[in-house]
Each structure stands twice: as C-alpha cells, then as structure tokens.
Amino acid sequence: MADAATSPPPPRRSYGGATDAQRRAARRERLLDAGLAIIGSQGYAAATLRAVCAAAGLTERYFYESFANREALLAAVHARLVDELRAGLLVAFAAGGDSAQARARAALSAFFGMLRADPRKSRVLLFEMLGVSPALDGQHQRAGQDVVRLVIEAFRPLADTRLPEGASESMVFTGLVGAVFHVAIRWHLGRYEMPVTRVVESCLVLFRALGAADQPDPGGAGAGRSTRNAS
Fold first, then answer.
1. 3-class secondary structure per residue, 148-202
2. Is the CB of residue 225 less than 8 Å from the CB of residue 164?
3. Distance (Å, rounded) from C-alpha 62 to C-alpha 128?
4. Residue range 173-210, pLDDT digits in tens
5. For residues 206 and 155, what is the distance between their CA atoms, to the nearest angstrom?
6. Which of these CATH numbers, 1.10.10, 1.10.12, 1.20.58, 1.10.760, describes 19-67?
7. Domain boundaries along the sequence of the chain
C-alpha cells in the first residue's frame, strides 16, 4: 500500500478536455469581451451586471468569480487594451529601424490603426475611465505615463533624436504623447472622417521637431547644442 504522504495529488477535474482553471479563464475572457462590447459602444453606465452577464452568456455567479464589481471589470478591460497597445507599439518601433521618423510613422500608424479598426477600444482608452473613481483616474494616468516611458526608450538611442540644452526629455515626450492622444480624441469625436494616413502625417509634424530641435535658435540660451536631460 502506497504511503499517503508520497501519493500523487488527485488530478484536477476537467470538462470537455479543459481544467477548472482553463474554464475560469475562458469565462473571464467572455466577460471582458462583453464589457468591451457594452462600454465601448454604450458607455460605462450601460454596463450593468445584468447586461454584461447576458452579453457573456453567464450567470451573475460567474461574474463575481472574476470581478469584485463593475468598476473592476472596467479596469480589467482598460488594462487589456493598454497591453494590446503596448505590444503593438513595440512591434512598430522594431519595424521602424534606426530612423526616428520611421519609428514615429510606424508607431502612429499602429496606434491610429488600432483605434480605427475598433472604435470601441478608442472609447475605453480615451474616455470611459475618467471620472468614475479616483482609482480608475489613477490607472488611466499611469497608463499614459507608461506609454510616455515606452516612447522615450524607443527614441532616446537614435542619432536623429536631439533635444536642445535645458529641455526636459520627460516633458517633451509627455507633450508629444499628450498631443497625439488629443488628436485621437478629436478624430474619434469626428467619427473618423479623416483618413488614417492624413492623421498620421499630421502628427508626424510634431515628431519632426525631434530632429530639428538642436538647430540654432537666436533667442535660445542653448542654441546649437544637443542634450538628453531626462529630468
């Protein structure tokens, strides 16, 4: 008779070839998809527990298996979209090679392409997190700061990215990313009437300043000198 202390644990139950953990994960994904569908098309106020569960084809019991409340669902939907955006930007930066303009064009095309392909994502990323609670406001702000850091890391090593002496790297890139997000907001509110290519070219005007910022400025204290002041 085998020693109980050394006996292997009983196998986890599976249904249709899926373990309990896999089934829970699948239910969570269904709820996230339902949350995106409702919040992204009708707004957070419309994402009631009943509406989300009906869209996901699940009972309320399974909602609470994954989320404490509706706010937690919104936070998770937003986090998933931020992860998708981050992954897309990393691919775009790699595709852009060692040129600042090529990287900027690739990243802008990826960002605006993602929003145009599914305006529901645009609504969640740009609007629906704001004003719900201090916690979600903080998550939204941190996501923006993470994007700024990602962009800085992508452009800092490039020879054609220059800042004049005295300029703050973090402030410059915060301004650039903020401007791009404001363009995205206007584009969304305008129902995407302008073609993606024109939106990208418009934003590239801002990024071109990265390569021209070290040109002599008669009124500037540090004209003609480049630096990477990270403060």
1. HHHHHHHHCCCCCCCEECCCCHHHHHHHHHHHHHHHHHHHHHCCCCCCHHHHHHH
2. yes
3. 24
4. 999 999 999 999 999 999 999 999 999 999 999 888 77
5. 14
6. 1.10.10
7. 19-67, 75-215+222-231
